[in-house]
Amino acid sequence: MRTHTRSHLARVALALASGLVLATLAPLTAQAATSTYQVTSTIPVGSYPEGAAVNATTNTVYVVNDGGNSVSVIDGATGVVTSTIPVGSYPSAVAVNATTNTVYVTNNGGNSVSVIDGATGVVTSTIPVGSSPYAVAVNATTNTVYVANNGGSSVSVSVIDGATGVVTSTITVGSNPSGVAVNATTNTVYVGNEVGNSVSVIDGATGVVTSTITVGSSPYAVAVNATTNTVYVTNLGSNSVSVIDGATGVVTSTIPVGSSPFWVAVNATTNTVYVTNSGSNSVSVIDGATGVVTSTIPVGSLPYGVAVNATTNTVYVTNASGNTVSVISVAVAPSITTSTLPAATVGTPYSATVTAGTEPITFTVSSGTLPAGLTLNSTTGVVSGTPTATGSATFTITATNSAGTDSKAYTIATAAAVVVPTITTSTLPAATVGTPYSATVTAGTGPITFTVSSGTLPAGLTLNSTTGVVSGTPTSTGSATFTLTATNSAGTNSKTYTVAVAAAAVVPSITTSTLPAATVGTPYSATVTAGTGPITFTVSSGSLPAGLVLDSATGVVSGTPTSTGSATFTLTATNSAGTNSKTYTVTVAAAAVVPSITTSTLPAATVGTPYSATVAAGAGPITFTVSSGTLPAGLTLNSTTGVVSGTPTSTGSATFTLTATNSAGTNSKTYTVTVAAAAVVAPVLAATGFDVLPWGVGGVLTLLVGAVLLVLAAKYRRSHAA
Question: Which residues form the YNCE-like beta-propeller domain (predicted)?
Fold first, then answer.
């Protein structure tokens, strides 16, 4: 230790020597059980580090280097010293006002306090205080700083206004004050008087010493748990910690700790107290609720200062002889949270991490073996390597630290080597605005990564890079052309697609009014139309005739009826826009039989006389045809009814064959129809129209015509008689 104006150093050395003797004589029960804490890292800092403080808001640690006249600034998240700030001569202690982000450093050899802006790391002012200032504490609520002046026969505490940096008062306390702490909740200040074996209690509001409490030998540092209103004082000369009830000012217990306890810090969140034992290079951990030392943690050489970040539950200890800071974390038994490990592929680099909590943790394969080609990193829990053989390997990984162990069994299936993807999906279906869409592009076995390598998907659709599924709800019509590429460790394959997006669906409207009758044994097909697809058709009530089914996509009712009867049912058409229903009745007639023409002959016909005759061949439906010959001129055959009809136009005899056909077969018959000439009708005089003439003229004409006809008739008879 340095020989300068700090007369307390000599007393500290003496206390250390006395502490070593006391530690030798102290019962072993003063030490703790197996530690549940662990030193997670050791950070090099400046020369002879003493005091430490933490700003939990910024997660920053400040360490004063007594031998280097500096402050090391540590990033609590990374454990890296981010800067070193020059301060006054022989700095010994540091305190932080997290509210204003201001740091206060006592310069023991310079009788001053350096004020540092925590945001910039710049010393903004230096405040003169009493002789050999050794300890400092801040009341963030009142923005007041308290400095214990330890030099010579100093018996004072300097009070600084944090807002102005002015010493507003100097309070007389016990002999050689070396520690100071504040309870901001009660606005009470506690000062450890190193030579007086006492603690002075100051009312922060008035600056008056309200009481003096006797404690152990050479009280050195003081810490307060404001939550429980409990004060802890390290007794450097008696290897103990005095516990004071802040409400009554009574020492409620004295806790044996390690050799030469130097500094003390409290985590109010966990109600845990940490004491640096400078003579035994350790930290005693005290349960604030029971007052029992729960563990003793080995640290570096000559530990002095200690500070706690309650937010991260991390403890920082300065090792004066080692020029380092030990970082202590609570050791929690490992808990493996990695439920499964991914499959592997021959020839493909593999890496998977088994997570079990905060380090340091040691990982081992406690049973079974890893797949060939893979190894376990015992520090990180990473299983990695390149598999060399297919198969399935089952093994158990165990995570161990000072607090316990945890194990978990895993199975890794190793597949054959990866092959280049081949996209086998030839086309993607069309889409409709407002209708959910999903289509999968297949390219082989995974893992495969799918990307849109050119063009763009229709608006509203996305590509799942892992599964190759194109999905979403289209938002606009049009046609989009794009290229999808499938990639794995072996190579890539691409294919171009076009997806047409139609307008949004409208509610179906069934326009088919009726369905035709059916016949047993006769194939049947009828379509129910309800608009443009996609539409789903269902039988929503009743049932179709036996033997018939409904195609849900096309609306076609088809099949071959198996029984007669009448079936009434309702068909419903549904799409994304809504539904529409209609009720139908289909009558199923008996099965068709082969036609049998029973009409033996057809009647004769006469030119100019309307003609109609029916060829009967059984129950319909039957189709009639002229299978050979021709009908008389002017006559036609009705193919449905078998009626031969019309008006003959010429005489003669016509022979033809009629054939009756249905689903069961055919029957034919040959007919002959004779067509006679039209009948001659005797003249009727009245028919001449002469009767419409006036009688005088008409009568004469009628008599003349009659006479001519009589003459002609007489000649006809004579010629035939000859």
Answer: 55-332
